[in-house]
Amino acid sequence: MSLLDVNHLDVRFALRGGDVRALRDVCFSLDRGERLGIVGESGAGKSVAAFSLLNLIAKPGYIAGGSIRFDGQELTTLSDRALRKVRGHRMSMIFQDPMMTLNPVLTIGEQMVECLKAHRRISTREARGISLNKLQQVQIPSPEARLDQYPHELSGGMRQRVIIAIALLLDPDIIIADEPTTALDVTIQAEIMALLLELCEKHNVGLILITHDLGVVSQVTQRMLVMYAGRVIEQGPTREIINDPQHPYTQGLINALPQMATPGSRLNQIPGSMPSLSNLPSGCAFHPRCSFVERADGSRRQACHDQVPEFVTSGNCQAACHMVAEMIASERIPAEEQD
């Protein structure tokens, strides 16, 4: 059994005009020590999926259906008190902006000690010792001095290292990292991701990495999910998806990488933009932007307009696409005719 199993997760936001579905039928799993990437454009539902795991969705958002099982325990039905024993303890989260996460009026040491004492019955001295050890693990220079400094006295990269140290304080089984390097420059981003990968491998910690950077995903994760308009549209081993993407949206994301364009020419881009969740197109939500709705012979795939695609298996990957289903079906026909 997987450490984390998410099945048919449905998250909605109750608005005046009616409920808006932010996540639809999201399913995935995570084994102990495994690294999973979740990618997609802004508005795809990546962060909502991450926040749902710890029930951190702000009202009027709520989990409308589905299951989140962690180590055999159903999280969606836990009381707030019971959930606090999981949140921050066995499942930790690294947020995008460390300055929004750290309390500006408390020293780094005070915040780390407070976190430890909220979950363990230990003395302040013991908690401070553990905090110092974690700061050393994330390779912060002069960790003893940093414990008595305030967040504004640290650089952006050092603040993010502090956040990672706090996430590791209670030796969690899973770390959820929501675009952890967004606010950092490129060289610091590489250092932080290398550090996070090293720590996860060393301590056998599962990692869920939320990002729009396919380059980072390809280097850090073993499996990946591609999300679009609140739904998973492709999933499988990272290397296979990067090398041979099945869904047209995934192909578009990879082709949009700067290294995929001819030097001196315009960057490739997916036409159009993500649809509003309150007004999704019928059928496949991606079809208004998809160049494969029309076949090579000029005919149109009507199913793209009319039916939400089901997942089909291609190699070790799954893609929710009518074109992929059609291609797989056409490959099977000759073999069946020979039989």
UniProtKB/TrEMBL annotation:
A GO BP annotation: peptide transport
Taxonomic placement: Bacteria, Pseudomonadati, Pseudomonadota, Gammaproteobacteria, Oceanospirillales
Stretches assigned to the ABC transporter domain: 6-254
Localization terms from the record: Cell inner membrane
Organism, as annotated: Halomonas elongata (strain ATCC 33173 / DSM 2581 / NBRC 15536 / NCIMB 2198 / 1H9)
Coiled-coil stretches noted in the UniProt entry, renumbered to this chain: none
The protein's name in its UniProt record: ABC-type dipeptide transporter
Catalytic reactions of this protein: a dipeptide(out) + ATP + H2O = a dipeptide(in) + ADP + phosphate + H(+)
One cellular-component annotation, GO: plasma membrane
